[in-house]
Amino acid sequence: MSILYTLQDPNTKWVLMGCIMLGISSGVLGCFAFLRGRSLVGDALAHAALPGVCIVYLLTGSKSIGLFLIGAGVAGLLATYSITAISRYSRIKEDTSLAIVLSVFFGIGIVLLTFIQHSASGNQSGLDKFLFGQAASLVHGDVITIMSVASVLLLLTTLLFKEFALLSFDPGFGRGLGYPMGLLDGLLMLMLLMSIVIGLQAVGVVLVAAMLIAPAVTARYWTDKLSRMVFLSGCFGALSGVLGTLISTQQENLPTGPTIVLSATCFFLFSLLFSPRRGILARLYRFVKLRNKVLVEDVMQSLYESLEELASRTRVGGVYLGISEDEIARKSGKSPAQVKRALAELRRRKWVVEREKAEGQAAWTFTSEGMKAAYPFILNQRLWDLYHMTQNQYLHVQIDQSREELAPQLTDEVLAQMLAQLEAYDLTPRLTESTPLYPMTGNNQGGVPL
Amino acid sequence: MNALWIILTGSLVAASCGFLGCFLILRRMAMLGDAISHAILPGIVIAFLLSGSRDIMPMLIGAAVVGLITVLIVQLLSHHGVKTDAAIGVTFTALFSVGVILVSLFTAQVDLDLDCVLYGEIAYVPWDTWQWAGIDMGPRAAWGVGGVFLLSLLVIGLFFKQFKLCSFDPALAAAIGIPVVFFHYLLMTLVSLTTVAAFESVGAILVVAMLVVPSATAYLLTDKLHRMLWISMGVGVLCAVFGYALASWLDSSIAGAMTGVSGLLFLLAFLLSPRHGLVTRAWTRRKIKVSEPA
């Protein structure tokens, strides 16, 4: 109810519009910064903007965003140049030079800010709103400035989308194609700077970097396509802007910056946990599934090979006995509990059955359906083993080792050669669907294997 | 007398930060230090709300816990495929926001000014004194920072070899059986403790300056770790002295002025360091050119 009431206020409507545009533009530009590995550069630029803003105020005495934009822009360019210069011309690493520039510029900004506050005229300047951001302090003119700058930024990004994509993923290739990559990089930096400056008054110097980082990281969880990522990031930015502004209007004395940042962080946390492909839960689910699949396959293989050994020992046409759980566990190297679990799963698929042996211990064997599944699986395993053993004989064959199945990747000729080799190594799977696994008894199945 | 106390406290802050900062910049964790210094804010506020006083002990504990949590979260996020810089950015801004919101919500109970959060109020340090057995022992802040400084001197002194090896060649350190992860977290604990002890004097953000700038200056001046530590502490003290002078001349924030001075000193080292300075190297190159005519 109170939110609806707040929305009636025309001033709040303006502020909201401003924050939405702000969220979109910083979300969109943040994507490129994120992909270029420059997330924290935004932080440094934001801190560096403070002395620029203060100097402009000292010189002109006005608080218009347009003038601040110029001051912060100049300071930001100086900061960017300093960061590159320090890491290029000395042995100081990039991250340290970032921290140096960030803190020194901010320190100078604080000196100027306190200087202004302590001098008689500037007491009511409200410049300290810049530290944490207070969207409510935006006036109509500011919102107009924010919206026009944001629109220009969005327009430029749309026009130069292809070039920025190249810059983000493969600047070397772009240079090869003849694009002026250095110029584009500079332009991107300048646009980042502008989106930071228009965010200063709403989000504040300290936190404005989060508006660049959080939406981009969040969007990365939902897609692998740059255009979609940029779009989503813009949406997340806008949503955080709206949520944060509304929350901060509900409580007196609550700065907007932190609430916007926390809204963005909530979107990020949600994506981190629940994103369908990259989210922690989805990955955990896939991991458990894969582990179970491997376990079942290992147990299946051990059972098959034990039965195979038994068949070769008994030298009769079929295997009428089963393999005990202990034996499978020994052969596969799994714990008895794991073997039990895998066998339960296999029995659920009706691939194995349990028989009572004389000593009272359960013994397992394949059903004919299970054998139908196990034979090609084992053959595939053995073919891979053979391929890895004799790889240099098959160098001329194109094999994708990441695929599970080997046989479909081979020509008939090569397959025949490999099968012959398997036979020579005595690795041909001996048990097939037609191998009798059950004793012929007169009374029940009439000699037909189950 | 008050000026002396302020300079002393400032020097202690700068020296203890500069001391630990050397290890941070050698391990390329300058931005992690930045993150910790922002992120401890909620720890301080919660400790403050729970204990209801400005005692340094609860704050130290709260900050150390949150500092370690920050490092853990950053590592967890990088482990789950978030780029390290983005992970740092998301973590510290979120925690800092929580801190600011807590301060705003509990303004009545919390005697923490948001300005103080950012740039400290070292100027008020001399009035907040520590009474012990009825005797005025001097500013509490100086005692707090001094104590933490002693602690880090002690810890680093005891395990100097291990820290040194972990800073320069963590792989080798791990190979010869040094628990690298343990020393990593130990260092992070010390950084968190120092940050919170310095917090009252120089604020959350300028701590970073004291952590990084003097040690980077020292890094340009020497190739030996123990000399780097000494120089870094010396530069820190210089920052405090000249920073105080600058601040009283301009009537501005002392912590900010200290940072400004540290930037100036860094610039001097950057240009004029005997071996790594920009101007010095250009000069040497010219001399070589002149001395071998074609």
Automatic annotation (TrEMBL), chain A:
The chain crosses the membrane at residues 14-35, 40-59, 65-86, 98-118, 138-161, 229-247, 259-276. Keywords: Cell membrane, Membrane, Transmembrane, Transmembrane helix, Transport. It is found in: Cell membrane. One of its GO terms (cellular component) is ATP-binding cassette (ABC) transporter complex. GO terms for biological process: cellular response to iron ion; response to zinc ion; transmembrane transport. Its main location: membrane. It is a multi-pass membrane protein. It comes from the Bacteria. This protein is probably a component of a manganese permease, a binding protein-dependent, ATP-driven transport system. Belongs to the ABC-3 integral membrane protein family. This is Manganese transport system membrane protein MntC. The lineage of its organism: Bacteria, Bacillati, Bacillota, Bacilli, Bacillales.
TrEMBL record, chain B:
It is a multi-pass membrane protein. The keyword DNA repair does not apply. InterPro entries: ABC_BtuC-like, ABC_TroCD. Keywords: Cell membrane, Membrane, Transmembrane, Transmembrane helix, Transport. One of its GO terms (cellular component) is ATP-binding cassette (ABC) transporter complex. One of its GO terms (biological process) is transmembrane transport. It is found in: Cell membrane. It comes from the Bacteria. Its main location: membrane. The chain crosses the membrane at residues 6-26, 31-50, 56-74, 86-108, 141-160, 172-196, 202-221, 228-247, 253-272. Pfam families: ABC-3 (PF00950). Belongs to the ABC-3 integral membrane protein family. This is Metal ABC transporter permease. It comes from Brevibacillus composti. The lineage of its organism: Bacteria, Bacillati, Bacillota, Bacilli, Bacillales.
